[in-house]
Each structure stands twice: as C-alpha cells, then as structure tokens.
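Justification of resources, computational component.

The compute hours requested in this renewal are based largely on the per-chain cost of generating structure records like the one below. Each record pairs the submitted sequence with a full structure-token output. That output is archived, and it is also reused by downstream analysis tasks.
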Amino acid sequence: MPTGRISRVSYQHNFGIIQPDEGGQDVFVNLDQLEDVFPAIGLRLAFDLAGPADRPYAINVRQAED
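The structure output for this chain reads:
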C-alpha cells in the first residue's frame, strides 16, 4: 500500500496533493476521503491508487504511522 505526505492543500476547492514516499508522480486526493483527520501539509497518509496511470488519485485514504 503506497504512503506519502500531503504537499499542497486547497481547502477552497476541497483537494490536496500527495507526494509519494517512493517518489514518482504526485497523487490527487479529494479531502472528503480524509475522515476524522485534518489535512495539513506534511501529514503522512496511506492510500490505494485509482484512475489512469497519468492522473492517479487516492482512495481508501487513512493516516499512516510515522
């Protein structure tokens, strides 16, 4: 399961960008995927990938342990 940290957040547009720990392309996340967690920059997340390879997005998002 991939992990990464939130690198950008738009509270106004309800999305964030995750920078994967393994490197590679950044991953879009809808902030509605984060239940009971405030989406702050630097927050480490675990997630599953969905969508096309050139525009991946995160699903089943949860806070990862450091």
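The domain at 1-46 is CATH 2.40.50.140 (OB fold (Dihydrolipoamide Acetyltransferase, E2P)). The chain has a mean pLDDT of 95.
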